[in-house]
Amino acid sequence: MIKTENLTKKYGELYAINGIEMNLEQGDLFGFIGPNGAGKTTTMRIIATLLEPSWGEAYVCNHSIYNEPREIRRLVGYMPDFFGVYDDMKVIEYLEFFAAAYRIKGPARRKKCNEMLEIVDLDFKRDAFANTLSRGQTQRLGLARVLLHDPQVLLLDEPLSGLDPRARIEMRNLLRRLGQTGKTIIVSSHILPELYDICNKVGIIDRGVMSISAEVSELMKQVRDRIVLHVGVDDHERASKLLEGNAIVDSVRQGDGHLVVTLVESAEDYSEIPTALIGEGFKLNLFCEEDIDLESAFMALTKGTGANF
Ligand SMILES: Nc1ncnc2c1ncn2[C@@H]1O[C@H](COP(=O)(O)OP(=O)(O)OP(=O)(O)O)[C@@H](O)[C@H]1O
């Protein structure tokens, strides 16, 4: 869906981006994370064919940015981090204006705009003037605008920035929903925890270099070298003895009202543990993997890469 090879942009001696490699498939929700000035906007603008790289390649649905920019523009919806809305236009008029630019005609235009307002939960503001919207509502209107031509790829530059907590939650939910529609989405942020739990892939970029680009689940595996289980049973002492005798259990300790069981490094399938406990007559009232603190996980991963969040 989106592929870049050695994508590089230089301004004089400054590498805005340097050798960016990206490979995203249909349905991927890619969190593009990096501090201010890291190169996120530059990368997205190049993929959107709004900026030429110094060298390197980028493809959207196998179309090259050099040879087929028009095809790419049809496939891509790009929402910049800041965009103006016209002062004297109502929300619905604003959308219809862009729908017309996308050549959506006749009754289909109003229908499409209504549909988009519903998707972004902005129907109640349809007759408000666009410049009276809050930042969060403006961002949602921007999203409605880029969805009008039903692009397969969405490039969203910092859609969460400047939002209050409620608007942020709403936008994150909206992104999650869009992620389930099969579109390929790149969403950037300079705030690490904002994105990783809604994305299936993340890239971490700093000073133009992407130090990490991987599936979130893979990264988690790297950080978590062994599985830790929380096990709630009626008789801790007897259960501890049983668990300690299991070959895949490394250690058992007392947690807050339950047992904390650390497995050996090689253990992945631990289905035998509940089976054994139940087989011995224990009543299981809790059985789950310990949550990983994702933020510390990413901190650990980015340590030494120069990334500074
Ligand atoms: N037109 C330009 N001329 C010179 N330098 C530029 C230009 N555009 C961007 N840069 C530089 O390229 C680097 C990457 O900028 P870019 O806007 O891509 O970063 P970003 O990660 O999107 O940051 P932000 O979150 O602040 O938008 C920065 O050092 C920036 O100053």
Automatic annotation (TrEMBL):
Family matches, as Pfam families: ABC_tran
One term of GO molecular function: ATP binding
InterPro entries linked to this entry: AAA+_ATPase, ABC_transporter-like_ATP-bd, ClpA/B, P-loop_NTPase
Keywords: ATP-binding, Nucleotide-binding, Transport
Gene3D superfamilies registered for this protein in UniProt: P-loop containing nucleotide triphosphate hydrolases
ABC transporter domain boundaries: 2-232
PANTHER family the record matches: ABC TRANSPORTER, ABC TRANSPORTER, ATP-BINDING PROTEIN
Family recorded in the similarity comment: Belongs to the ABC transporter superfamily.
Protein name in the entry: Putative ABC transporter ATP-binding protein YbhF
